[in-house]
Design a protein that fits this description.
about 500 residues; alpha+beta; Immunoglobulin-like; Glutaredoxin
């Protein structure tokens, strides 16, 4: 459709061109350009060694991360199947999963192989039980991405292991003035610099391969061994991103970027000793990381903002969310979460302790209207819980809350608003709510996009509000059962 539209535009404006040959040349160039950027990739699998198998393609990154995007069922022994990978998912890192039967009557058994797939066609001969054994599973001759990546991984492991041994020695050695320590420190710095130079050369030598964009995550930053424990941590934080090129947009398509930033966040987590300090440190963590990313491409800048928004939203870190406000208004920040961040900031200003809770009307399971502000509760407080039976965090919270309520049902009443929508989600919700007797269960049409979810600025679940039953005002916004318990104990 796009190709036809572009060619039609050329024909309608042909007076801009010298003759018909110009039209043909431009049309061919446009067609080739469109074809180049929309080119799919193919994975050709030769199945061997088992009776049959289902083959699933699972991305390790992106919006479909860890979910099968393609499946081929009942592939027989010695059968060849070609799987077309959408261009939108390429290049990327995938798990190719085999649910195989050794015999036709056997129960399927899983095996998985990680694989880099690009727009270059890949052909592989696979014996599923031994899919990670090079003697039983191999790529076509001259395959580069996965073969070169595997060789790099082996060599990198050996090189890095030696440096890590020296690092452990320096970190645990007490006499920092001894000749042995000074020699170890000198050797460490020499080896670290040589290793980082080797990484840089590997990136340059393999720059045509997608895997090269993951190499920089192996960079070993400078570390202040002579400082105390906090000075060492601060040194690590300061130099953590030294090896990262934030102008490289392909970093976003690697699974390593999220893992790399997760490790950075965990450094701050290791020194967070209470809730107040945690909020402060994680806000500082995001501020530093985002400022580093802002010096790179707009896409990488936006990715970093999105990453920290997701974390701040999940753990209700309000100072962190407020910190993001200056970045979402920066035209160089290509965040996909701008509307969600604005909505959360508006919610933080609107839904505060002491304000009137938004009223709502929903149908109960017996089709009678439930009007929140007209409902009369016998308890002093009402806990308004937004959750989903398809959310693991929600399930954990609901199970904890159910047990907690056995000793606290005289203090508070639970109105549980399910934001489940799909048939599978609703089945799970109906099953779970049978074990949550004494709660009032509601399910608005539209789920997370419903009016009640918008009125309460719900962007993720679970979310809780403690409402004064007599005044309908928000009394507390707990993050956990522990906080809820502390509030009711006062």
């Amino acid at each position: 459709m796009i190709k036809k539209k572009r060619i039609s535009q050329i024909e309608n404006n042909r007076y801009f061109l010298k003759n018909d040959w110009d039209i043909i040349i431009v049309a061919i160039l446009l067609f080739c350009s469109t074809h180049l950027f929309s080119q799919n990739g193919t994975l050709k699998v030769h199945l061997r060694g088992v009776a049959e198998s289902k083959i699933s393609i699972i991305p390790l990154n992106g919006i479909y991360a860890l979910k099968p995007i393609l499946e081929k069922d009942s592939i027989k022994n010695n059968q060849v199947v070609t799987i077309t990978i959408p261009a939108s998912e390429l290049p990327g890192e995938f798990v190719v999963r085999f649910d195989y039967k050794e015999k036709a009557s056997s129960t399927p058994y899983p095996s998985e192989k990680e694989m880099i797939l690009t727009k270059a066609d890949v052909e592989i001969w696979v014996n599923p039980p031994y899919c990670n054994n090079s003697d039983s599973t191999w790529y076509q001759k001259n395959e580069k991405e996965n073969t070169v990546h595997l060789n790099f991984t082996k060599e990198n492991s050996l090189k890095k292991q030696q440096i890590m041994l020296l690092k452990n020695f320096l970190s645990s050695y007490d006499d920092t003035k001894s000749a042995m320590y000074q020699k170890g420190l000198k050797d460490y710095e020499k080896n670290r610099n040589e290793y980082n130079t080797w990484l840089k050369n590997q990136i340059s030598e393999n720059k045509q391969l997608f895997f090269s964009h993951s190499i920089s995550f192996q960079y070993i930053p400078k570390l202040n061994f002579k400082g105390n424990e906090m000075e060492k941590i601060e040194s690590l934080i300061t130099h953590y991103f030294d090896g990262i090129d934030f102008n490289d947009d392909l970093l976003m398509q690697t699974k390593g970027l999220k893992e790399f930033v997760n490790s950075y966040v965990n450094i701050y987590g290791s020194i967070s000793f209470n809730e107040k300090l945690k909020d402060s440190l994680f806000t500082m963590c995001g501020k530093r990381a985002i400022e580093k990313a802002s010096l790179g491409s707009p896409k990488m800048y936006g990715w970093m903002v999105d990453y920290f928004y997701t974390g701040y939203e999940a753990y209700n870190i309000k100072p962190g969310m407020q910190m993001l406000e200056s970045h979402i208004n920066n035209p160089n920040c290509l965040t996909s979460k701008k509307l969600e961040i604005i909505k959360r900031l508006d919610g933080m200003k609107t839904l505060t302790v002491g304000t009137l809770s938004p009223n709502f009307t929903l149908q109960t399971s017996d089709n009678t209207p439930f009007i929140f502000h007209e409902y009369t509760s016998t308890k002093k407080y009402t806990l308004l819980l937004f959750w989903s039976a398809d959310c693991s965090h929600c399930i954990q919270l609901v199970e904890e809350l159910s047990k907690w309520m056995t000793d606290n049902e005289s203090k508070i009443e639970v109105i549980a608003v399910s934001l489940d929508e799909t048939e599978t989600e609703l089945i799970a919700w109906n099953t779970m709510k049978k074990n949550l007797s004494g709660w009032k269960h509601l399910n608005p049409a539209g789920g997370i996009s419903s009016k009640i979810a918008n009125d309460y600025f719900i962007l993720s679940t679970p979310s809780m509000f403690v409402v004064d039953s007599s005044e309908d005002k928000i009394s507390f916004i707990p993050k956990s059962i522990a906080e809820l318990n502390d509030f009711l104990s006062k």
